[in-house]
Each structure stands twice: as C-alpha cells, then as structure tokens.
Amino acid sequence: MCRSTKYQDKLRFLLLFSRQGKLRLQKWFVPTSDRERKKVIRDMIMLVLPRQPRTCNFLQWKDLKIVYKRYASLYFCAGLEEQDNELLALEVLHRYVELLDKYFGNVCELDIIFNFEKAYFILDEFLMGGEVLETSKFAVNVSMEQADTLQEVTQHFHHSFILHSLTLCLSVPLCVF
Amino acid sequence: MSDVVEKTLTALPSLLSLDSQPGSAKLSSNSKLGNLIRGITELTSKHEEEKLIQRELLLIKEQVSSPNTTMRQMKELMVRAIYCEMLGYGVSFSYIHAIKLAQQGNVLEKRVGYLAVSLFLNESHELLLLLVNTVLKDLQSTNLIEVCMALTVVSQMFPKDMIPAILPLVEEKLNHPKEIIRRKAVLALYKFYLIAPNQVQHIHNKFRKALCDKDPGVMSASLHIYLQLIQENPEGYKDLAPSFVTILKQVVGGKLPMDFNYHSVPAPWLQIHLLRILSFLGKNDQSTSEIMYEILDESLRRAEMNHNITYAILYECVKCIYTIHPKSDLLEKAAKCIGNFVLSPKINLKYLGLKALTYVVQQDPKLALQHQMTIIECLDHPDLIIKRETLELLFRITNDQNVTVIVEKMLDFLRISEDDHTTIDLVGKCFHSVETCYNRISQTVFLNFSLRVRFDSVEEDKKLRLFAVNSYISLLQGDASKLPQRFLQVICWVLGEYSHLRDDLEPDVIVRLLAKLLDMKTSSSETKCWVLMAMTKLCPGGAALALVHNVSETYSSSLDTMLRQRAQELEILSQDSELQAKVLPRSASMEPVEVDSSLSFLDGFVSEALAAGAAPYKPPHQRQEELSRSKALNLEPYGLSLPISMSSCSITDRQSPTLLSISSGLSGDSTDFSHKGSSTVLKLDGVKRLWGRDGYLAQKEPTEEAPRIEAASPVRSADQLGNNNSQTPTPTPTPECDQEKQQLASSLFVGLASQSSICLMGKSDQPSQRFRRKTKASGSSEQITNPLVFPSDGSDNLLYKNLLDSPDLDGSPPEQTPGLDAPNGACDAEEESTDADMKEIKTPPIRDEHVTAEASPHHDPDGSKDPSLTSHLPAELSALSHSKTTTLFSKQNLDVSACHVQKEDSVVLVVFISNCSDSFLQQIRLQVDSEELEVSCVSDSPSEELKSHSVAVCQYFLTVKRPSVHFDLSATVSWQPPAGSPLTTQFSYRLPLTAFIRALRLSTEEYGAKWLAFSHDTKQNLTLIQGGRDPLAATLDVLKRKLQLHVVEVIGVEAIVACCLQQDQPCLMHCRMHAGMLSVWLRSPVPDLPDCLLYCCQRALQEL
C-alpha cells in the first residue's frame, strides 16, 4: 500500500527567524528529533539569509524543497516534500502573515517575539498537521477571538515600551493589506 | 454575511461564559518574559546568553516544582520555558508540568499547557500517555473551547495505541451543531487515519456525511481524508467523481461564501484538493475523465487573475489535465499555460513552469521542443535551483541520441554543486541515463564520466563511490554480455579502485564477477586487460587466489602483448602482497597521477638512438600526409577543412567527438573535433569522395558541388541553422552565442520527434513566440502587491514598503537608508496617485528637457530633501497633480528620486538627481526603459555635471504600449564621482495602471453603440461596499474617486461606467448588484485592458 504523503501540501516544518538569525517560532509537523531540529534550523538560517533579493523563493535542501519569504525583518521558511506545489506553500506563508496581521493589527516582529504563544495559537487554527485547515480568514480570527475575549487585555506592545533596548526595526509591520 | 460567519458569531456569546479577571499579576508576569527577552537582546556573546538562560532555567525549574505555584504562574513559567526551548536549551523538566497545566488549568492556562505539550513532545513520547485522560475529559466538556483545544491537540499528536479510548467521543463530535467542532473532529479522524488506518475503517460512511456537510469548512476538511483514500485506492471511489466535479464547479463559480476567498480567488486550497482528487480518479479512466473535462476547462479559463495563488491552481490544473485521459483541446490549452509559466520573467513561475514541463514531457516529449530555447537559457541561469530543475527536465527527455550531451550538462552542474544530496541524486541520474541508453553511447562520455566520478570522489563523500560500486556490481550480476566494451572497462576500473568500500563484500566475489567477463566471447582483449588490472588491484587472499592464478596462467600465454603483460603483473603481485601494496597503494588511487607528457625521461634514450642513426620521430598526421602525398592526389581540402573544424571547436567549446554519434543532418556536422576525433571517418570520407576521383567531375557540376562542401563545413552549417531560426524567440547578443545555443538545442532535443532537428526548430518558432508575447502582458503585472521595486534593497518582499520605513537593528547597509527619508510608505506611488486629487488643467505641451543642474535652495547634507524636491518640478507641471516623490536610491552622495505627473493625455515621469556631496559629479547619464511603456526623452543627457548640493531634473513622456496592472520602468544612472571610477546603478520605478486611466465622458447612446463594438471582455463579481444606504452608489463613488471612472448612468441596481486609457483606448463597464455582490462586465477594444482594469477595481475596493 502506498502510504507516501506524495500528493499533499503537507509541510514538514515552519520556521520564523530574524535577519540576525534568531529563531522566532518553530513548528514541526512530522516527528523530528532534537538533533535533527537543530541541524535543520542551523542549515535553514545559513541557506536562506545570504540569498540575494529577487532570486527564486525556492531552494533545494537534501530531499526537501524549502520555500521561504522575507517579510520586513522576519523570514518565514517552510520545508515541504519534493512533489508539492511550492507556489502554494508560498501562499500558505503569506496567508499566515495575513492572519497574524489581522489578529495583531499591523503585526511586526515585536508582536511575534512577545506574543509568540499567540502566533502559535493562530498557526494551530490555520495549519493542522501541516495541512491548510481553514480557508476562511474570518473564521480563524473568530475562533482566536473566542478564546481571547477570555484573555486579559491582549498584550499589545507599544513601541515605547521596548524602545530603549530594541531598535525600531523589530516594530516594523510585516505587511499592510 | 455568509452562513459560516453568522454561525460563528452567534456562537460567540455562549462561548464567553467565563469571565476574565485582568489582574496586576499579569503585567508583572509578562514583564518577566519581557525582561528575559530584553536581557538576551542586550547580551553580546553566545556564552553570556548561555549563562543567562541557565540561570533562568534554574529559576523556572525551582518554581514549577514548588507546590505553592498557582496555575496562573505556571502558565507564565511555561511560556518562558517554551521560549528557552526555542533558543535551543533543554527544558525536559517542564514536560510533566506542561501536561499538568493542560490538566488542571482553567481554559486559558489549559491552552498554554496544550501548546507546550504539542511543542515539547514528540508523537512517540511516553509522557503523552498522561495526556489521554485530560483529552478525554475535555472532549466531554460542555465548554466548546475546551473541546476545540482537545481536538486540536489530538489532530496534532496522539499516541497510536490510545486511539480507541477517544475514538467514540471524536466520532460523536461529527454530529455536533457547531461547524468548527465538526471540522476539527474530521481532521482528528484524518490524523487517526494517517497513523492507524485500521482503527477508523468502520467510519468510512461518516466521512461521506462530512463530505456532504452543509458547511464548506467541514466539507473541505473531509477532502484531506478523501485525497488520501483515493490516492490509495482510486477504484473504490469512482462513484464520487461526479460529486467532486459538482463541488469544484460550485467553488469555481463563486458559490462559496465570500470569506472563503483568498485574494479574490474562491477557496484556493479547496480547489487544489479537488483537482488532485480528480487527477487520481481520472487517471487511466476515460469515462471518469470525461465528466471532468468541462470543469477543468472552466478552471483554466477562470484562473486569470495575476496572483500567485491562481498560478498555483493553474499548475495543479495542468498536472491534472496531463494525468487524466487525454483530451486534445484541453492539452493544448494546458500546454499554452505551461508556456506562460516557462516564459514568465518571474523566477518563481519559471521554476514552476519547468517543474510542470518536467511532469508533462513524460507524457508528451514534444512539448519540450517548443520551449527548447528557454530551457537552454535556464541551463545557464544564475540561480542554481532553476538550473537543477532544468536538468531534472532534461533527465526526463533523455534518449539514446542526446544522452551524451545531457550527461555532460549534469556533470557540469556537479562540479559547481556543493550539496551532497544533490550530487548523489544527480550522479544517480547520470548512471541511470547512461545505463538505459548505453547502446549508442560514445566512448568519451564513459571516459569522461569515470574520470569525473573520480574527480568528485576526491571531494565528495564515500557514498558516491559506493553508489557507483553498487550499481556496477548489480549490472555485472545481470547479463553483462550486452554492455559495450568501453563501459565494461569503466566498470572494471571502478570496481578495482573502490570496491573495497563495500565492507560486506569479499573481494573474491568481485573477482568472480570479473572472471565472468573474461569468459565472455564478446569481451575484447582490451577489456580483458582492464579486468586483469582490476584483479591485480583487488588481489584477494583465500578462495579466489586459485582463480586468479588460473586466470593469469591462461593469459600469460596469450598472443596479445598487453594481455600477457597484465597477466604477468597479476601473477607476480598476487603472490607478493607487500609489493602489491607498494605498487598500488589504495590511498593513492584518489590522488591525481602526475604524467610527464613530454616524455622528458626518454631524452637520453632518444638522443642515443638518433646518434645511432635511427629515423627521427614523425607524428601520425605527418606520416599520413606523406603517405597520401605519395599517391599524388590533390589534397587541398584537407588544408581547408581542418582550420574550419578547429574554429567550430572554439565555437562549441567542446572537446569530445561525441556528437558525431548523434549527428543528424547539420547539427552533427557542426560539431567539433578532438585530436582523436580528427581521424573521424565521417568528414574525411566525405571530402575524399568529393575531391578524390569524383573531383574531376567537379568542373562539370560546380553547382552541385558547392552546397556539399558547405554542408561539410561546420561554420557554414551553423550559419544556415542560424538563418533558419532567425525568428527564434531568444534575443541573444552575438550570433556566435546564438549558434552555440542552437547547436546545443539541436543536440539536446534530438530524437524527441521524428522530424529532423532543423524542421523542429523552425516549427517551434511560431508557437513559442506567441506564448512569449502573451506572457509579457500577464507576467509583468503579476507582482501586484509590490508597489515599487528597489534593486538596491536586500529584500524581495512583496509587502515591501514597511520594510523601507525601517532602520535596521544591527546597522543596516547604506543602501537601505533611503527608506528613512520616505516615512509612512511614501514609496507607494500607487496609493498616492489613486488618492491624489486630480485637477484637469490644460497645459502647454511638455518640453522634454536635458538634465538641468540648478542650485538647490536647501543645502541639506542629511538628505532630508523630499519636501524641497517638489519645488524643482517644472513650472508647467507643478500645477498638475503628481504622485508623492519617492527616493529610488541613495548612494555615494547621489540621491535619485522620482514622481509621476498626470497630465490629461499622458503621464510624465520626473526624475530628480541630487548631489549631496560637496564636490562636482560629472558625466551623469540616465536611461529609462520599460517593456510596456513607450518612454520618450529628447536625449540622454550626455556628460552633465552636477554642482554640489544641487538637483537635476529629467522628464520622460510615458505612453502605454500594452495595458498592464503595473508598469515597471527600469532605469540606469551612471556618473563620475570626483575621485574614482564611474559608477552605475540600476533602479526601477513602478506606476499603477490608474495613473493612465482618465474619465471618458459620453452619453448612454454612445455607450450602447460602443458596447456592442468592443470585442474583449471579462466578467467578475466584486465586493460591494456595505454600510451606507445605497451600496451601489457607495461602491461607484469609490471607483470614481480612485480610478477616475466616469459614471454614465445609474438605473436601479445597474450602472454603466466608462473610462479610457490615455484618451484613445476606451473601456466600458457594466455593473449590476446581485446577491450582495457587484457583478461587473468590462469591455474594451484593447486586449488585456478589461482584465487589468478589473484588477484595479478589486484593489480599490479592497483597500478601503
């Protein structure tokens, strides 16, 4: 029986890291050992950061296709299997940014640093086991807000709060829609 | 409002039963994480960070295990632990507490607990068992959020053995009234199916129910399961094919709620899932395929918006069309679509196009012919991934005629590739190609190949060599008698050198395999020599020694001297292992052997022999020449043909005679000569016949003779090739380069179709040109979210402008600074221009100006010059509305900014070049170009100088050649700083279509007459602007304001609107309110204009 995951847009992992090579978020959709994780993270950062602008957003790494995209100071990087549709994966990344943006409102790297658990929650609503779950942007946010209204006031970081130690760059919105 | 949204909204209040108590504890706890993060950022070394985190971890450890820690504190600690884990530090002590938090916390704390569990633990972790009870409890909870969380974590990870414990509960949730719960339940079952398919066998009919769910979200989730099921067993689900087709039809037709749209494309992920399912169902099944033709056609047609997501859908569509039972007109459309991809200037699309082509050529190799020139260009693409994908494509079209060239290309790539995986993969492919097509392979490839394998092996790891050894052993174990001799020799060499890498294999096994070769009747004596040499290297002890002895005895009496020599060596060395190790050290096989090619060590011997009266040595060609001269024939053509063929050598730059073997017509002749190859039978034969005895006839038939000479001469033939293909779609700088590519093309794509290569190339011209033209229109407008492109910046960010606003954390490179000068997204020329208040003032015709230097009123070295730049606008333009001035780049004290001014009949681009330095800048040249725009300027401002702190203004008239959503201008500026060499920089500027759109004022009657006359149209549903009393009016108002559209008339729910592109290219729009949407129909005599305009409308409405 063919149990390969051949025809799925299943991501293997999703990493967010900054231009300085600092990991901001990691999600592994297939079981991966700690050692393997560290290797992947290191390799991804080494592979993606030196890429020139306006080159292909896709890369080959071992038997995986790497799809990455830079949003302001943050790189979004996903690993997927060879057979998958890279362009679609690129849109998955974009969609995630859109969702973050919708939730945080002009999301910037700082939002993700300080509220990374929220970023994870959004990701869980959006991707389940590496598959795109929800095609409705609205619904993801609603289910996020459901929980959030319970939450104390969302920690929205005003830049002045951090400015003295972190430079402006982190507070640049990742995108505007 | 759509169904789903309403549902979720109504669900909200019931979900909010829990009260939140914002407390002061939260703030302090949060600042703990904040403190940690800040602390880390302030550190300078990795070592310090390590110390800090270790301290932090100790603290966390202490607190989590303290009985006094509340769940609220625990949650905060867990967040910090997650953070530390992300930085790469072990936090295994907190795993159990994460589970505890998930178990005992309130909803919010539970959520963090579950998150921590899913991040910390692997599927196989034993602690996961402790989670089962918690999940069980939460699944039964009356709180929907808890149920949701439980289902989420279940679908991420769950111990396989415990599935039966919760399966009934999850199944039950399939009937839950809330769609979100049903959806998550379906996905949990999908997860179960993936890890333990047997456990969910009995609920297959429930999947069907999920498929029929009235909520699209649930239905879409169930497709994950169906995709998997159908992939495994397409036969079992044929009956569902019509349903999937219907669903796809509805999705494509825009029947889903609007909030499933992604960038105006209805539920793209759903569409792609369905397309994949359909391709499984339709594979090798004509009747099932037939029901999908229509919708596939529709999908191809609908997906015309220029957005990545539509390209992703198109790609799947094309794949589907080529997978299912073929239908010619669909195939044609799909092929055209691939053409658009491949020819796209966007590198991502090009990549995907190559990938699609790779998939498709397996069905239809001829398709590669249409794109041969593009493929060849891609082979030299600077981006490795494109190169690699091209090789992958070539690998699929390998046949015994082009294998040589393709393998060479692969080997070329191997030399630049640094990645082990790629190398092994490619070498595997080389082997595969060579093995399957060995019949006609010329010897050189093998020799090259073996040498390269060796070359690579020096740097690459053992795996590669092992791969070679393994594949050769398996070849020998099969029937080796059909392998070409040269190949056998290579095999012998490789086995002799590297078979020791296989530890599990005794050398005698290999010796036996090799001995088999000796017994084969077909083996030449040369091959036998190689076999003996390999045996010598292997030099086994034990059982095979007798065999070796036997062999050496047999051949030591051979008539062949070489063979006898080898046999002697074998005999001696096999008996003296010490000597063998000295003569053939294993490690030395990896070092290049130094060869004294001048044979200087023989000098003494030669001079002695000469002194003794021996005849001096004559090289073979001299000997031959003398020999032929003695026959007293006219041999002029030798002199003629040799230099010409040498020159072809330099053109093609290849030294193997391999192409002779694939010579078909001109392409073969146009190849090269190696020194060995100069003995080629082909050429000399032809020449001899012509100039030999028949040469006397030449005077009688001079006309016939000439072309034959030409045909034999490579340069001429290449010329002819070039002439035949003067229309090829590739604009190449030099004819030689072109020829080279042509030759490459003919050798790469030979044998893909029955026609000769020349015919093919001629044939392929037309279609590919057509594709090319088409793509430019669509390709240029696809980068839609990117308002401006700055080559100087280090990002290919689609959502660009915010990045520009940002100074960088750790000292940004100087090119990035212009961003500082343009705050608040000033680079967004589009937005500015659409919002700009348009004044329609007649102005005198514009006078194109040279760069005129004038002293700047502000001497502002900081470069905060934006406000002042506008004052440099020429007087006749200053009254008109203009876009915000955008800094395009700033480098070496030279700043270039630009804006565009909208005149009534045209658009003028104004470029400001400001010198911020204290010195003169000289020879400033600016050149502006665009593919879609006609750019006119009087001249390119030769050698202008710019005084310090002054600004030069250049103007360019822009007219649209071809409509597009955006127009990209690329410009080059060069200048001479006072010290140092001239500098050149490129930059680009982007204008939106809206800059060229003007209102078209006409009456309803005129509108009616025009409407019928226009041939290009497009239709689409747009979002209405809600809120006001009259959504139609509100929407039209926005369009009018942002796009300068003229509303001709509004009747009830319908409206007619008109505009034109630069006065003479009208576009009419018909709007109708229908089912909460605005369905618009655009018509124009200009192709592409309706599509582009439609996109602008969409954008304008979305931007609100």
Automatic annotation (TrEMBL), chain A:
Membrane topology listed for this record: Peripheral membrane protein
Domain of life, per lineage: Eukaryota
Domain called AP complex mu/sigma subunit: residue spans: 11-150
Gene3D superfamilies: 3.30.450.60
Location(s) in or outside the cell: Cytoplasmic vesicle membrane; Golgi apparatus; Membrane, Clathrin-coated pit
Main location: membrane
A GO cellular component entry from the record: clathrin-coated pit
Coiled-coil parts of chain: none
UniProt keyword terms in alphabetical order: Coated pit, Cytoplasmic vesicle, Golgi apparatus, Membrane, Protein transport, Transport
Stored InterPro entries: AP1_sigma, AP_complex_ssu, AP_mu_sigma_su, Clathrin_sm-chain_CS, Longin-like_dom_sf
Molecular function GO terms recorded: clathrin adaptor activity
GO biological process: intracellular protein transport
Family: Belongs to the adaptor complexes small subunit family.
Subunit structure of this chain's protein: Adaptor protein complex 1 (AP-1) is a heterotetramer composed of two large adaptins (gamma-type subunit AP1G1 and beta-type subunit AP1B1), a medium adaptin (mu-type subunit AP1M1 or AP1M2) and a small adaptin (sigma-type subunit AP1S1 or AP1S2 or AP1S3).
Protein's name according to its UniProt entry: AP complex subunit sigma
From TrEMBL, chain B:
Membrane topology summary: Peripheral membrane protein
Record's keyword annotation contains Flavoprotein: no
Location in the cell: Endomembrane system
Alphabetical keyword list: Golgi apparatus, Membrane, Protein transport, Transport
UniProt feature, compositional bias: Basic and acidic residues: 836-845, 852-865
Entry-linked InterPro entries: Adaptor_Complx_Large_Subunit, AP4_complex_esu, AP4E1_C, ARM-like, ARM-type_fold, Clathrin/coatomer_adapt-like_N
Biased composition (Polar residues): 777-786
Swiss-Prot/TrEMBL GO biological process terms: intracellular protein transport; vesicle-mediated transport
Function: Subunit of novel type of clathrin- or non-clathrin-associated protein coat involved in targeting proteins from the trans-Golgi network (TGN) to the endosomal-lysosomal system.
Similarity-based family: Belongs to the adaptor complexes large subunit family.
The name this protein goes by in its record: AP-4 complex subunit epsilon
Organism listed in the record: Gambusia affinis
Organism ancestry: Eukaryota, Metazoa, Chordata, Craniata, Vertebrata
